[in-house]
Amino acid sequence: MPVDVTTEIVIARPIADVWAYASDPTTAPQWYANIDRVELVTPGRLEVGSRMLFSARFLGRTLTYTYEVHELEPGRRLTMSTSEGPFPMTTTYSFDAVDAARTRMTLRNHGEPSGFGAIAAPAMSMAMRRANRADLARIRAILEGASS
Fold it and tell me: Can you tell me the distance from the alpha carbon of 66 to that of 5, in angstroms, rounded to the nearest whole number?
């Protein structure tokens, strides 16, 4: 059973600010509650083909996986995926200007879990949706707090 979770939030910051922060993999542990560490495997600027190692907790397990960037439209869209572990997943961040001072950030995670993950897909979707909402609220609080 596939997992496909989309969440979004409006952040009271210009799109350039939201993009700069959210598309920087090294900020992920600051706004993703379950991500403990990110290590850049590919040095330099983020581009298609860039790779980064994530260490995260999900449903009581520690997962280590490598994401690779597949799509990069600065200020608009970032898509990366991993084929490692029991849950190969693609993550897409999309950014749309609501107006000059507000940005809609959309976070989509989708994939086809295998093994236990396939059995637990409905519970994983609910847990992921809950976590994504909290993470987007956290990034909004960080970025809106930074504008004060």
Answer: 20
- Which tokens hold the place of 25? 């993999």
Q: Which residues contact 99 (CB under 8 A, 6 or more apart)?
A: none
CA distance 35 to 55: 6
β partners of residue 5: 109
Question: What SS3 state is found at 98?
Answer: strand
Q: What is the largest CA-CA distance in the chain?
A: 47
pLDDT tens series, the chain, 148 aa: 678 899 999 999 999 999 999 999 999 999 998 899 999 999 888 999 999 999 987 667 788 889 999 999 999 999 999 987 667 889 999 999 999 999 999 999 998 766 655 556 667 778 788 989 999 999 999 999 965 5
